[in-house]
Design brief:
Layout lengths: L7 H40 L3 E2 L13 E8 L5 E8 L2 E12 L4 E11 L16 E8 L19 E3 L4 H8 L3 E8 L17 H44 L1
Parallel strand pairs: 1-2, 3-7, 5-8
Antiparallel strand pairs: 2-4, 2-6, 3-4, 4-5, 6-8
Length: 246
């Protein structure tokens, strides 16, 4: 058996990089499992019965719960969630406060996506004035993404924001409200509603995991190659020196 002599530099590189590559691959596998569980919970709750809005504050985990509402929109305090893309087109999502008359609870309803091709003109939308019977579901963001939050306290209405948190809105309006966004289901007040449940599906995470593990494998193979290759070169050099001395 020929001795394995990779050298200290390749060994140091492997010791530094290999644990990180394996950890990243395992993390992506974990994220894939989390997304599968999240999608399963979404499908289960979408198939379940809708509850009344007054029951929402008692739920320990309201994510994706279907809700039946009856009340009216507050058109005077509309919010526009900027930088939303559909089919390569730029637009916004329209969110408005909604007072559920059966419970007296204020909710922030996302009515869907609207195109906004020309920033020089205001976004065009209408708000029903009469009371409506609506179906919606609770959206809780899976994880905290870094986003720039515009200040909701200043400026005129409707307000253009890059991120919206209902918990920060209700104190500004001096109202008691539900702390999560509700996404409207198809009905008389909805615009385009094709939201992805998750920004990145489990298959994407699996693909990234495969890439990280492949990099780890390539690093090990290179390490083995240099170990044997360097040893052969040293042996060849030793033989050449011995021949010259003879």
């Amino acid at each position: 058996m020929k001795p394995f002599r990779p050298g200290w530099v390749p060994t140091l590189v492997v010791l530094l990089l290999l644990p990180g590559l394996i950890a990243l691959g395992c993390w992506q596998l974990t994220r894939a499992q989390e997304k599968r569980e999240l999608l399963a919970r979404y499908a289960e709750r979408q198939a379940g019965e809708a509850i009344a809005a007054g029951q929402l504050p008692q739920l320990p985990d309201p994510a994706y719960q279907r809700v039946h509402l009856y009340g009216h929109f507050d058109a005077a305090h509309s919010l526009l969630l900027d930088n939303r893309l559909r089919d390569g087109r730029v637009g916004v999502e329209l969110l408005q406060p909604f007072l559920d008359q059966n419970s007296g609870l204020w909710l922030l309803i996302n009515r869907g996506w609207l195109p906004w091709p020309d920033r020089r003109t205001p976004v065009q939308f209408t708000t029903p004035e009469q009371p409506l019977s609506l179906d919606a579901w609770v959206y809780v963001a899976p994880g905290a993404a870094f986003q720039l939050h515009a200040d909701p306290q200043g400026g005129s209405w409707p307000r253009l924001l890059t991120a919206i948190d209902a918990r920060h809105l209700w104190p500004q309006l001096a109202r008691e409200g539900f702390p999560y966004e509700l996404r409207l289901q198809a009905g008389p007040a909805s615009y385009r509603l094709d939201w992805p449940v998750v920004a990145m599906g489990p298959e994407k995470h699996l693909g990234y995991a495969v890439q990280w593990f492949a990099l780890a494998l390539a690093l090990v193979l290179l390490y083995l190659y240099f170990g044997w290759h360097n040893n052969k070169e040293k042996q060849h050099g030793s033989r050449h020196e011995s021949t010259q001395h003879v």
